[in-house]
Amino acid sequence: MKPMKYPVKYKRAYNEDDDIVTIDSVKEENRLPIYYSIGTRTPMEAVIGEIKQHYYRAKRGYKINPETELHKYAKNILKHRFDTSNHFYIKYYRKECCPKSEQCIFSDEKNGCDILCEQLCEYDLKAFYDKATTEGEHDGFDADVLLTSSSKKRRPVFLEVAVTHPCTEEKKASGNKIVEIFVKREDDAFCELTQPEPSIFYNEKPIIKFHNFDNTITIKECTHFSESKKYAQQPYRLVTAGVPTKFYCIPQQFIGGPIQAYYDNTQIGMLFASNKYAKPFVFDKAISLNEKQFIMMGKDIYGAVKPWVIYVVTWNGKDYYHKVSSHFDYNSALKDFTISQGKQWNGGETLSDQCM
Question: CB 15: neighbour CB atoms within 10 A?
Fold first, then answer.
């Protein structure tokens, strides 16, 4: 039977010289009579043995407030990291600002480029700042850790630790650059200061928030503008009924019937349509069993709420009529695509069925 592992109280502490000592490095032969908590400098002792997991705890007669200790601990660790490291990196997302958005088919006429082109940018704060002060003051606000430069007149950066209370709205509205670190365990103070992706939840990684940093970056040419140039010279038909939409695969002339011609003129991977809601590329295509309809299954890759679309195209004797439906997921779109052809669907209930 494996021995029970007890939870570690504290993994790190100061020795009498204010050096950080991890509990894993403490042995019976080098154990000191007293250590100090990193946050509140409360006297501590190292608990080690052959069975229990090693940890630091407050010496008898002393008590530690966990919230206060963790908050001050994180501040001191952040300062220690800055003081003892050659580099101190932060990473956050910045939106590309394309100066050619007005010429891009993916751009909205009123709001400019409607595609979120973001890139994770890395900056070394040690290249701009050389001093870290705990509880430093600037502009009437106290920072948990204030990063300043002694050589250049540069606005400082606030490092703010949030254990139970996040950064105040007043401080965020001050215009000062703030890196806010949400801490709930010791190791969080050692995390990379990287803005997480939206899919990263608080219980998986510490939340890092950036306030008042410039979140735009001007580039020479957006990658989507480069792609749009492929379609700039491509003929399209603007249909204004309903939502104004540009269709890029309508055949200019046809032999063998209008439905077959539309099918032949539509290639997998091509941009099929463009409007203010979606810009679907051709994912799959088919002709209905009665040969009276052309069905296109497409996917928008630029952030549409419902990225999967089905266009059912019919010929009324004079022109094409496009009927569109949109879906949150592939399986729902596949069901619509299958039934629109006149085939039977055997894939069961889909997300779109549940939302009806």
Answer: 13
